[in-house]
Inverse folding.
């Protein structure tokens, strides 16, 4: 048989999750240069809210939508309440604040929902499989890849073919000039925060059936998403997708042929390697600095 | 004043167990190790402006290196500690090399990756670390028969913390410290004026890692039984929180932050599950209200009082 093709399919499923996480990180980074360390925790929050609602017999779609809305609101609120009025607006300061938010949200999820792992009811099963030639694909892998592609396309259309997307790109390029032209830059920033958090939430919901639900479930995927974003280039949305898929496939192949135990270590070895050779990432542009 | 502080520090481990507060001696050991890590980390983050979110990795290397050297090779503990510091400095140098090309968020992710990678390698390389089963640590001894292990460790760790802090104070005031500050404020401008960026950036990483390594050796002695779980990402964040809350860029700030965050879990032991929430809120509040940290706030109050009627 062809185990490598099988590995690639599994890798694509994992990779599309990494790509979703990376997209949220990149979306925020390219508009405000803030690296959001709370991205994973926002996703965890969204997933837990959806989980609670499903437990109360709310339909799956509605529950997930509410979960994503909650994380989007938290993101936008964090921008308005903390980031914007911050006394010292240095980049390091903002990054440290998102670290604080990560601790805060992670701790709150632990207090509210406890630390036991729970099973997230998901409408797709991982035991029902489809055969494509010699390759076996489970329903959940198909669903993950499909949902990932749909979200990526939607984001692409939003950023490149709508007025809001144009405003987002304008604010990312030059906030002062955009504001002078009448673009409500602060609202656009808040929207970007909300959108990025909701994307993370979507990744969390898609991930929950695979890893089970616990307060730390997003730590590992979040770090991989980071790795993917850095690999692809922090200011490039297509880069995030490419980085995510490459990382997913690379990891599964590495686990299959070399060593299963050290597969997570690979992600970080890859980042360091990519950064050494091409600090702006595979598809990134910006790495010029002025004094 | 100095003599008074010395007398209190010296008498504490002898007096405290008699009044039923012996656990404070143990907490003091942990505080000493945290002070060492925070002071070292602040030399890197606060003085040189290079972010590290993987310092738990260096602490872990120090802990395992010192324990393995003492346990398997039979080195005396002080040699093992020195060797652990040297090994950590070597690793710090290695991590510092990519840091030459990385700034801001990229460096944060790379160091974070280093911390996680160390944890994973320790978990999986079972021959070295005993894996999840753990590694027993040979207790150190000063050869003082009347003292328990914790008391002896207390004297050693407090003395080491004091010496390393003193070194950090001097380092920040020497030409090295000034070169670091120049790199922090603008590395390109610093290079133009003749500061060797390669040397000073990697040196900052190496020194900071060596501090973390010594602290790791103390942590190993305090726990007596090493497990990789003690050196997770959360530890790295806690170290980072110490210097942010205490005050970035000042040695005193790092000490205050380390002491506050060591004592806080014990003061709030009933609210243990709320700790991350408290840390997180403190970090956000501190960055939003007083980016110079507790020490910065204290300085401001002091200056205000000095110039009061004005």
């Amino acid at each position: 048989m062809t185990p490598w093709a099988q590995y690639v399919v599994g890798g694509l499923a994992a990779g599309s999750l990494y790509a979703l996480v990376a997209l949220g990180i990149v979306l925020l980074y390219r508009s405000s240069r803030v690296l959001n360390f709370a991205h994973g925790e926002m996703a965890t929050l969204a997933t837990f809210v959806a989980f609670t609602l499903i437990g109360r017999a709310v339909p799956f779609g509605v529950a997930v939508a509410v979960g994503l809305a909650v994380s989007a609101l938290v993101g936008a609120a964090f921008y308005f309440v903390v980031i914007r009025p911050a006394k010292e607006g240095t980049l390091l300061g903002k990054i440290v604040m998102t670290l604080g938010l990560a601790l805060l949200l992670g701790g709150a999820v632990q207090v509210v929902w406890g630390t036991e792992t729970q099973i997230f009811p998901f409408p797709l099963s991982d035991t029902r499989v489809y055969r494509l030639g010699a390759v076996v694909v489970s329903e959940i892998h198909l669903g993950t890849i499909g949902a990932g592609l749909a979200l990526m396309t939607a984001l692409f259309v939003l950023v490149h073919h709508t007025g809001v997307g144009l405003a987002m790109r304008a604010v990312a390029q030059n906030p002062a000039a955009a504001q002078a032209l009448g673009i409500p830059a602060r609202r656009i920033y808040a929207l970007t925060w909300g959108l990025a958090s909701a994307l993370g939430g979507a990744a969390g919901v898609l991930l929950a059936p695979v890893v089970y639900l616990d307060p730390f479930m997003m730590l590992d995927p979040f770090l991989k998403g980071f790795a993917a974003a850095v690999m692809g280039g922090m200011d490039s949305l297509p880069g995030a997708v490419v980085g995510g898929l490459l990382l997913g496939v690379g990891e599964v192949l590495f686990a299959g042929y070399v060593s299963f135990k050290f597969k997570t270590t690979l992600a970080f070895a890859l980042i360091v390697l990519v950064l050494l050779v091409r600090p702006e990432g595979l598809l990134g542009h910006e790495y010029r600095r002025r004094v | 004043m100095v003599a008074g502080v010395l007398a209190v520090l010296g008498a504490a481990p002898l007096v405290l167990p008699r009044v039923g507060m012996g656990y404070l001696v143990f907490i003091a050991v942990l505080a000493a190790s945290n002070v060492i890590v925070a002071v070292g980390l602040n030399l890197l983050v606060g003085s040189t402006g290079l972010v590290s979110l993987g310092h738990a990795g260096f602490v872990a290397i120090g802990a395992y290196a010192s324990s393995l050297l003492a346990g398997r090779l039979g080195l005396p503990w002080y040699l093992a500690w020195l060797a652990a510091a040297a090994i950590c400095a070597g690793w710090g140098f290695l991590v510092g090399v990519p840091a030459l090309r990385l700034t801001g968020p990229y460096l944060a992710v790379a160091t974070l990756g280093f911390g996680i990678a160390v944890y994973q390698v320790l978990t999986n390389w079972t021959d070295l670390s005993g894996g999840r089963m753990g590694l027993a640590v040979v207790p150190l001894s000063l050869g003082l028969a009347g003292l328990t292990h914790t008391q002896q460790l207390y004297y050693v760790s407090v003395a080491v913390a004091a010496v390393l802090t003193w070194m950090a104070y001097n380092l920040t005031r020497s030409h090295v410290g000034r070169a670091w500050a120049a790199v922090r404020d603008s590395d390109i401008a610093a290079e133009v004026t003749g500061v060797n960026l390669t040397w000073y950036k990697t040196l900052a990483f190496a020194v900071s890692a060596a501090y973390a390594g010594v602290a790791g050796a103390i942590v190993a002695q305090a726990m007596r039984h090493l497990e990789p779980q003690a050196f997770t990402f959360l530890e790295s964040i806690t170290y980072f929180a110490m210097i942010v809350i205490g005050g970035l860029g000042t040695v005193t700030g790092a000490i205050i932050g380390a002491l506050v965050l060591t004592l806080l879990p014990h003061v709030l032991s009933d609210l243990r599950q709320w700790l991350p929430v408290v840390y997180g809120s403190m970090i956000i509040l501190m960055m939003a209200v007083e980016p110079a940290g507790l020490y910065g706030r204290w300085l401001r109050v002091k200056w205000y009082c000095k110039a009061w009627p004005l």
Notes: The mean pLDDT of chain A is 84. DSSP finds eleven helices and two strands in chain A. Residues 276 and 283 of chain A are 15 Å apart (CA to CA). Chain A touches chain B through 46 residues (CB under 8 Å).
